[in-house]
């Protein structure tokens, strides 16, 4: 098992470990404080929306006033910016009300790439406002993106007859057989609301959202960080797509652990050195004996490249 620490604090043990990733049952700020500067390739954040939701934990209040919520959000954004590599990507999923504020803050430190509109069906009108039909997925990078993979989506078909919905102006034969280019409007991403499919009481993020973010902005064996574990969608997609991952969840981690188990993601073998080297201080017991260490900055780009390439 792995335990991590920073700034002289007590060591914090992981809730679960796979060969590619590690999950901690803690506040996101506690985890972020243990991660060294410029060490993460991509961060995906799906924080609470401050909508008075019940997350079955007394360790977080989802009913702050606006000032408190924004100060809390800016604190973990600052940490995300600190740990993100040059060229790395940050995605934040939230309602438009907060995305506007988050974007204004992030514009001071990162480069704006996209506001991706996530179609949100089954909502309802609220007072003297338009019918809300989308959430936002902010996409920022720390400078020019080091990785950007163009993704394609299947050509939409009618769920009743199976026929294609559009005729593409008579140019159907010129479309790429792999599908359409992914745009900044995603209409196939409704959350998991039905209790038959949910792993926890709160709504869950549809796995296709973190999966697209991962595939778009990372390469094999890059490191993905999700400080708001929720139902574990990001970790599952990182595992399935051969990315290393690090996560935290302040509430009950049981649904995430169960989900990883169902996907067979507790492989035998030691955790990758790539994960260990992210932390300022760590203790790791790989079955027989214990390993402990402290990250020591490398002095040359060649040494840095070698360390990053050493992970399994």
Task: Report what the structure shows.
The structure is a single chain. The protein has 312 residues and is an alpha/beta fold. The protein folds into 2 domains: 245 residues, Rossmann fold; 41 residues, no CATH class. α2 links the parallel β5 and β6. The longest helix is centred in the N-terminal third of the chain and has 18 residues. The chain starts with a strand and ends with a helix.
Could you name the key traits of this structure?
312 residues; alpha/beta; Rossmann fold; 2 domains; 9-stranded mixed β-sheet; 4-stranded antiparallel β-sheet; 8 helices; 15 strands; 23% helix; globular
CATH top level assignment of the largest domain: Alpha Beta
Write down the Rg: 20 Å
**Distance between the amino and carboxyl termini:** 18 Å
Helix content: 10-25%
Total separate domains: 2
Please summarize the sheet with the most strands: 9 strands, mixed
Low-pLDDT runs of 5+ residues are 288-292, 295-312
| CATH domain topology of the largest domain | Rossmann fold
Strand content: 15-25%
Q: SSE order in H/E notation?
A: EEEEHEHEHEEEEEHEHEHHEEH
Record field, number of beta strands: 15
CATH superfamily of the largest domain: Vaccinia Virus protein VP39
With strands numbered from the N-terminus, the spatial order across the biggest sheet is 3-4-13-12-5-6-8-7-11
Overall pLDDT score: 84
CATH architectural grouping of the largest domain: 3-Layer(aba) Sandwich
Taken from the alpha-carbon principal axes, the silhouette is globular
The secondary structure category is alpha/beta
Number of helices: 8
Oligomer: single chain
